[in-house]
């Protein structure tokens, strides 16, 4: 039961069987918010971010992270389905979502993505992927993918991470309440079952944690003819 609970049940998640084209129908265009970027994160336009050694003299901002090398997307998510992709260029990178009202001044141990009940993420730590929520972790036995797809479903209260290669999608981990008894044997799923659904009562933002020096990511790419979820509302 423990082994089974650490991986999504693809038979109950039809999206796992779809090609990339299926998810592009829900493409969400993300721009990084410079007012949230920690001083050790250098932005390249609105799509690229890299952790650096020398602090950048950003102006004061009440939404800026000050203890964690994190940056948020500019756009809010509060209903419907959203899909975006991130290129992992170098280093240790975490990709996830966070509640809009999360305090960016929180201490490092609590402020990092997935170490609190107000955020969750998929982390690449240089050796393997790990899903995080509420301070609990779930190692994932999958090879490295340069492109990570993120699919957020408000109606299902689910967040799914995919490895993307050649238009094929490999389901890495789905975070969703499970009605079965699996969570009783798995602390990570038990935490999901108890508190993950409450995250969807919040407005959420895409969030990124650049954990190692020289960690580097790029938002996208997505097809230019994709229609943003925002434009359909």
For CATH, the homologous superfamily is named as SPRY domain
Main pleated sheet: 7 strands, antiparallel
Main β-sheet, spatial strand arrangement: 1-2-13-4-9-10-11
- Provide the domain count: 1
Gyration radius from CA atoms, angstroms: 17 Å
Poorly predicted runs of 5 or more residues: 1-15, 227-233
What is the ordering of alpha helices and beta strands?
HHEEEEEHEEEEEEHEE
The percent range for strand residues is 25-35%
Report the span from N to C terminus. Answer: 41 Å
Helix share of residues?
A: under 10%
* Class from secondary-structure proportions: mainly beta
Q: Which fold name is given in CATH as the topology?
A: Jelly Rolls
Total helical segments: 4
Looking at how many chains there are and whether they match, the oligomeric state comes to single chain
Mean pLDDT: 89
Number of strands: 13
Secondary-structure arrangement, i.e. CATH architecture: Sandwich
Overall 3D form:
globular
Pfam families: SPRY
InterPro entries: B30.2/SPRY, B30.2/SPRY_sf, Butyrophylin_SPRY, ConA-like_dom_sf, E3_ubiq-ligase_TRIM/RNF, SPRY_dom
Keywords: Metal-binding, Zinc, Zinc-finger
Protein name: TRI47 protein
């Amino acid at each position: 039961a423990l082994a089974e609970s650490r991986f999504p049940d693809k038979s109950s998640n039809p999206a796992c069987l779809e090609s990339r084209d299926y998810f592009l129908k829900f493409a969400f265009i993300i721009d990084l918010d410079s007012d949230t970027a920690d001083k050790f994160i250098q932005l390249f336009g609105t799509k690229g971010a890299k952790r650096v050694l020398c602090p950048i003299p950003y102006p004061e901002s009440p939404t800026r992270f000050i203890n964690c090398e994190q940056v948020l997307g500019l756009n809010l998510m509060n209903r419907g389905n959203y899909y975006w992709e991130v290129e992992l260029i170098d280093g240790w990178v975490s990709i996830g979502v966070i509640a809009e009202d999360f305090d960016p001044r929180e201490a490092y141990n609590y402020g990092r993505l997935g170490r609190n009940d107000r955020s969750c993420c998929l982390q690449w730590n240089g050796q393997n992927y790990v899903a995080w929520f509420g301070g609990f972790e779930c190692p994932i036995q999958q090879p490295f993918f340069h492109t990570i797809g993120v699919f957020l479903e408000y109606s299902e209260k689910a967040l799914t991470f995919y490895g993307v290669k050649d238009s094929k999608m490999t389901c890495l981990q789905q975070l969703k309440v499970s009605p079965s008894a699996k969570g009783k044997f798995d602390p990570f799923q038990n935490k999901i079952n108890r508190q993950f659904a409450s995250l969807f009562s919040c407005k959420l933002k895409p969030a990124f944690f650049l954990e190692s020096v020289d960690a580097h990511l790029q938002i996208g790419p997505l097809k230019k003819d994709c229609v943003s979820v925002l434009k359909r509302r």
